[in-house]
Amino acid sequence: MIRRLAILGVGLIGGSxxxxxxxxxxxxxxxxFGRDRANLDRAVDRGVIDEIAPxxxxxxxGADRVLLAMPVGAMAGTFVRIGPHLEPHALVTDAGSxxxxxxxxxxxxxxxxxxxxxxxxxxxGVEKSGAEAALSDLYEGRNVILTPLAENTPATVAxxxxxxxxxxxxxxxxxxxxxxxxxxxxSHLPHLAAFALVDELAGRPEAELFFRHAGSGFRDxxxxxxxxxxxxxxxxxxxxxxxxxxxxxxxxRLSAYRDALGAGDADGLMQSFTRASEARKRWQPNGNxxxxxx
Amino acid sequence: MIRRLAILGVGLIGGSxxxxxxxxxxxxxxxxFGRDRANLDRAVDRGVIDEIAPxxxxxxxGADRVLLAMPVGAMAGTFVRIGPHLEPHALVTDAGSxxxxxxxxxxxxxxxxxxxxxxxxxxxGVEKSGAEAALSDLYEGRNVILTPLAENTPATVAxxxxxxxxxxxxxxxxxxxxxxxxxxxxSHLPHLAAFALVDELAGRPEAELFFRHAGSGFRDxxxxxxxxxxxxxxxxxxxxxxxxxxxxxxxxRLSAYRDALGAGDADGLMQSFTRASEARKRWQPNGNxxxxxx
Lengths: 294, 294
Description:
The structure is a homodimer.
Chain A: E1 2-8, H1 12-23, E2 27-33, H2 37-45, E3 51-52, H3 56-60, E4 65-68, H4 75-82, E5 91-94, H5 100-110, E6 117-118, E7 120-122, E8 143-146, H6 154-166, E9 170-173, H7 176-202, H8 207-212, H9 216-221, H10 229-238, H11 240-263, H12 266-283
Parallel strand pairs in A: 1-2, 1-4, 2-3, 4-5, 5-6, 8-9
Antiparallel strand pairs in A: 7-8
Helix pairs in contact in A: 4-5, 7-11
């Protein structure tokens, strides 16, 4: 049982952890800190948090578990502020989409207390934000990846894993570098690729003509281009090293398609499209009813 | 009322036209030709077509309307075969996703009869295929683009437009070159971009690791990578000129992102992501509930 949980950043992600742990009877008190007072008031109204802290320092005072659930770009400053105020027995985790940069920020901010920090990444969310959107079952059956540090004891990792499993999540562990490489490929790059297409078309004088004729393929391909610009700017910069490597591989693939089109290389295109189509169907053979209106 | 409609290629697209016109009471008899005998038998069983023709030539004999609904790569040979066998009053349309190449094939195959051909592109479909998948309401409320030729009389265009509106579709007209440019951007490029990402990951030794961690953003971004490789090879090659231009613009955008990541250009990324996000939300402000599990 967590006695006092501090949620720093009471949005969908942090708020849902609070609600899930409350529903599971695994937390006595939740204190929240955030920049948006109206959002915090709403969080209290909805019973997401029990108390609003005036600062991160005040939030972690007396807390045995601390969750950083703000944009990754804001974590470095928070680690610096909370480091000196953490209780001796406090354990800290986060919900950032990138891990190596968060770990570097934690090392810089927490100093000798780094052993209490177990980095995490819950693979869950909906494109809504704020405490208003928090759901007690957001993590039910979802994956949470932990990237434990050499400094963490097994008991520390187990305690943070227990926090997430109490929310209904399945916890897996991997190295931070591996995490960042995987998510650069399957998440960060697709976001950039979707932003790039929409910005390209939106910037044309005839943008309206293009959008008017866009169908369900375009709709799904670009869905994630509706995501938060600030969040994805932070993620892209935080994970720029792995992301540039993925962008280079992708640019190389697309250039090869360009060459194949120029050369009329039907076989080359067919082979690549076939490998992709088969892999895509293997990945999600069912539950994927596809409208294809092009 | 169409007395005899010849459907060349009795799949989802062609079969749905037959069913829609029958439901509307706008056709007396439908004859079908296709390569797959079992599919044609199924089309007869389902009442999609009334008669199986042994050849394209036989199918168009006596037909006052002819629909080419096969892959665009197969149309050139079909125009050559049916040209000499078209009835004097016959009118022809097609359902190809590219238009300039189909028009070139029609000019080559139909020769002096080119005036009877009104090119079309129904923006409808589901990722199912075959006569089995044909639906009488597939075109209900969907757009069909016609790209009439200089040789078409207004009466000819009106008659083909009537065929599609009888299916429940809304018909608009544009120039073929404009059609191909628009669909290169909003449909053909996204398909190549999705194929490219999936093939890139599928070819890696650790492919399974990447796919295991892919979430809903990846799912939607790559949905169209499950499409028919042969169909998209044909479309890509048929529209290669416009598609290469779009690929170049896209490569340039992605390269700019790469440069911005390398330079830590937070403002540049933020501006582009914001333009994209706002344009995407304007395009589809509602009805787009978004899971974003990254």
